[in-house]
Amino acid sequence: MDITLSNKKQAWLHAIRLRTLPLALASILMASFIAWSHGLFKWEVFALAALTTTLLQILSNLANDYGDSVHGADSDDREGPIRAVQSGIIQPHEMKNAMILLGVLSFISGIGLLYVSLDSWVIFFTFIGIGLLSIFAAVNYTSGSNPYGYMGLGDISVFMFFGLVGVLGTYFLHTLSFSTSLLLPAISLGFFSASVLNINNIRDIESDKKAGKKSIPVRIGRKAAVRYNWALVVLGNLSVVLFAWVENTPGGLLALLISPLMINIAVQMGKKTSSKELDPYLKKMAISTLFWVLAFGLGLVIFS
Questions:
Q1: Rounded-to-integer distance, Cα 207 and Cα 223, Å
Q2: What angle do CA 62, 110, 114 make, to 5 degrees?
Q3: Cβ–Cβ contacts within 10 Å for residue 195, how many?
Q4: DSSP symbol at 80
């Protein structure tokens, strides 16, 4: 391991995984940009949605640290960055307490978001259900007695929550309306988010095999997982082209200026083999996705 944790403050910061937060905020930004272009943006919705999403992402990161350590994916054989519970600096019960706290804070923030956004009790409780499902998904990716991440279902969950639920849900809270065309940018973001997870799973493929974690790369092999990553990048960019055509919003095509960065990451994924070499591309893909969303939104705002 190149990274060692020497104290609890460092361990907690490492467990939070700050580099994942830009990706968590991408869906909120995308939906908010579209709402802005339609003249329906609400600052209070944006602020509370960003807070709730950030809390959920931190909860997911803590649960992942805890779950992989308990289930053996974060063993001494793992070549990726060391985890907080694995290091022994943070005890499992401390991590569980932190997870409970983040779950409560996420729920409270989510209630506040719904309170300022909705005036229908039916829709309010529908979103409560979605919120509880989000908390469940965040915790049970690698934690619990039957974590779905160990069955290779993480990509589907990421696609749904970082893409469809995040974008469509936030847009609805801004506007109290829905358009089927919004599925296209939501799909783009879902594909890119799945790419980030796929890069993570390619990096950890050997340790995941030993731990019985049947991620997509473990199931299909490294070469096929690299091709799968290409498909996610290409289809994500094609989806926004289709959105620009359907909605007659050429400004959204400004996002394609970022596509060379994503393509370069996909190229490098086919060349790098060691976990140490692959690890930086997690951050690069997450940040590229954020830049992609910002370029998309800037184009909408300028040309709306």
A1: 17
A2: 165
A3: 30
A4: S
Between the CA atoms of 8, 12, 15 and 18, what dihedral angle is there, to the nearest 10 degrees? -140
Per-residue pLDDT tens for 224-266?
999 999 999 999 999 999 999 999 999 999 999 999 999 999 9
Contact 252, 185 (CB under 8 A): yes
- Taking the C-alpha atoms of residue 175 and residue 173, their distance in angstroms, rounded to an integer, is 6
Tell me if 15 sits within 8 A of 58, measured CB to CB. Answer: no
Phi, psi of 176 (to 5 degrees): 55, 35
CA-based R_g, the chain, Å? 19
Task: List C-alpha distances in Å: 116 to 32, 41, 159, 232.
Answer: 15, 13, 27, 35
Inter-residue contact 301 to 37 (CB < 8 Å): yes
- The answer to whether 186 and 164 have CB atoms below 8 angstroms apart is yes
